């Protein structure tokens, strides 16, 4: 088990090093709540090409950060966050 923990820590360091070399790493990490690990997951999920989404709203929806409203009778209810993209675990 200790060997596995060491391997995971080594891989985390490698991922962080690769992420920090990305040209948008400092911008991605400037978003509150996004650090090295989540930033790396974000780049992996999007392929690193932010222009592929066309707008910030589309990118937010893909990432699951855009609130979704549902129309119920005569009022709008804010339901939950929705993701139109793939989930990276």
TrEMBL record:
Q: Which domain of life is it from?
A: Bacteria
Domain Transposase IS116/IS110/IS902 C-terminal, chain residue ranges per copy: 25-69
> Which InterPro entries does the record associate with it?
Transpos_IS110 (IPR047650), Transposase_20 (IPR003346)
Which Pfam families does this entry report, sorted A to Z? Transposase_20
Which PANTHER family does the protein's record reference? PUTATIVE TRANSPOSASE FOR IS117-RELATED, TRANSPOSASE FOR INSERTION SEQUENCE ELEMENT IS1111A
Its protein name is Transposase
- Which source organism does the UniProt entry give? Rhodococcus globerulus
């Amino acid at each position: 088990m200790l060997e596995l923990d060491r391997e995971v820590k080594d891989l985390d360091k490698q991922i962080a090093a690769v992420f920090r070399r990305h040209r948008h790493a400092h911008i991605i990490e400037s978003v509150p709540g996004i650090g090295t690990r989540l930033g790396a997951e974000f780049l992996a999920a999007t392929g690193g090409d932010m222009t592929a989404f066309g707008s910030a709203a589309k990118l937010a929806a893909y990432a699951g950060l855009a609130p979704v409203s549902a129309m119920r009778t005569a009022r709008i209810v804010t339901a939950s966050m929705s993701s139109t993209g793939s989930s990276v675990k």
